[in-house]
Amino acid sequence: MILSAKKILELNKEHKLIEGLSERELKNPEGVGIDLRVGSIFEIEGEGFLGETERKTPDIKKIADIKDGKKEIVLKPGDFVLATTIESVNLPAEKIVIEEGKEPTHIIANVHPRSTLQRSGIYFRGTKTDPGYHGQLTFALANLGKSPFRMELGARFVNIVFEQVVGEIHRAYEGQWQGGRVSAGKKEKQI
Fold this sequence. Notes:
There is one protein chain. It is built from three helices and 13 strands. It has 191 residues and is mainly beta. The protein has a single domain (5-44, 59-167), classed as Deoxyuridine triphosphatase (dUTPase) (Deoxyuridine 5'-Triphosphate Nucleotidohydrolase, Chain A, Distorted Sandwich), CATH 2.70.40. The strands form three sheets. Strands 1, 2, 5, 7, 8, 9, 10 and 12 form an eight-stranded antiparallel beta sheet that branches. Strands 3-4-13 form a three-stranded antiparallel beta sheet, with no helix packed on it. The chain is globular and about 50 Å long.
């Protein structure tokens, strides 16, 4: 079951599901999700590796960060970048009560691109976020269009939707991306 934006904001008071929300999202979100803003952009450099027990992500180079005063980036056709959110999420590792009188449940988050991205030729790739994860979120953006695409840092670019999990989980997320890490930087064992 998908939680409404109003329910997310109610739960946010107790569980801090999303930290750093904009005034717009705190006071007047639309529909069932909450919009998140782009905070920093990274290019990937070098080779990656995914093995049975080890992995290495390519090195990254930060090309824009709202904290540094950078206001806009341009994605040329063929560009591929990683984008992180300004906001941080905190998905409780334990079950929480969504509605009074109902059994507690785990929740996960799924993120969807705002339609302006796809309408501009920008391919978005994200993943689900499991119970137990906390930190900023990182997504892939690729310009598959034929024209440059300009994007201001601080712009709302994705919409996060929270859903209830049916059944038990074996364990909450404890992985190496905890805290919003963008790259492994070296070969490491997978947890």
